[in-house]
Write a structure and sequence with these properties.
With about 240 residues, the protein is mostly helical. The chain contains twelve helices and three strands; from the N terminus they run αααααααβααββααα. About 15% of the residues are buried.
Length: about 240
């Protein structure tokens, strides 16, 4: 390198604007290095989670949803209780989670499985239109589903009850109860209070001479309503709520 070129290089380095630009470049490169390192570590965690899930029968699409839900704690959480998948991941049902649990070595008659079975029976009933079930029906259905002893099913049931995963709700007269998932009990209570408030609100329709209206309707349509139909119309016109 000629002396003149060396001189220009030294002048450039001593130039304040050059030094600032050079410092910025170094900072950018340092930050990129840090991000690359963090991204590599994250990808390594994802690969470990994917391998774990694939080895336990979970597809790639579901594995990605599981990772997005639990993050880098996915393996730890699923090893602790694979049945949380039923609650947290849309599209994963009890049978899939149960198959994974068996693959992981969770005992066929574990309390964990019994609890999941009880919850599954109630969730299935809810999908069929039943907000709750009698205790006897739940215990019998769970025992049949899991093929385990009635004592183990009862232990799982009691565990769910004590943890608040299910609720014992009074039903009808006497000491009858239904067992419900909390979400459906809350929904029923909200509906009850909404109907109660609506029924106590003043009516919004103007007063109608109902008997005269029936006669007018008959002359216009040539239809003569049955007494039960008339009662239903009267109730609808005079009450905020009718069934």
């Amino acid at each position: 390198m000629a002396s003149s070129e060396i001189k220009r290089a030294i002048e450039a380095i001593e130039n304040a604007e050059f030094r600032q630009t050079f410092t910025e470049i170094i900072t950018i490169l340092t930050n990129k290095k840090k991000k690359i390192k963090e991204a590599w570590a994250e990808q390594q965690i994802i690969r470990e989670i994917m391998v774990f899930l694939h080895s336990n029968g979970i597809s790639t699409s579901r594995a990605l949803r599981i990772y997005k839900t639990y993050g880098d704690k996915a393996i730890e959480r699923l090893q602790d209780n694979p049945y949380i998948l039923v609650r947290d991941i849309h599209g994963i049902g009890f049978l899939t989670a149960d198959k994974m649990a068996q693959s992981m070595g969770i005992p066929h008659d574990s309390v964990l499985r019994a609890k999941a079975g009880v919850m599954h029976i109630l969730a299935t009933a809810a999908s069929e239109g039943h907000c709750g079930l009698p205790i006897k029906d739940i215990l019998e259905s769970t025992e049949k589903l899991l093929d385990v002893s009635s004592d183990r099913v009862l232990e799982g049931f009691d565990n769910c009850l004590s943890n608040g995963d299910i609720l014992r709700v009074p039903f009808g007269e006497g000491l009858k109860h239904l067992i419900m998932l909390p979400i459906y009990n809350t929904a029923e209570e909200q509906i009850f209070h909404s109907i109660k408030n609506l029924s106590q609100s003043p009516k919004t329709l103007p007063d109608v001479k109902i008997d005269a209206a029936f006669e007018w309707c008959k002359t216009k349509t040539d239809l003569d309503l049955e007494e039960q139909q008339k009662e239903a119309i009267k109730q609808a016109l005079t009450s905020r709520v009718s069934v």
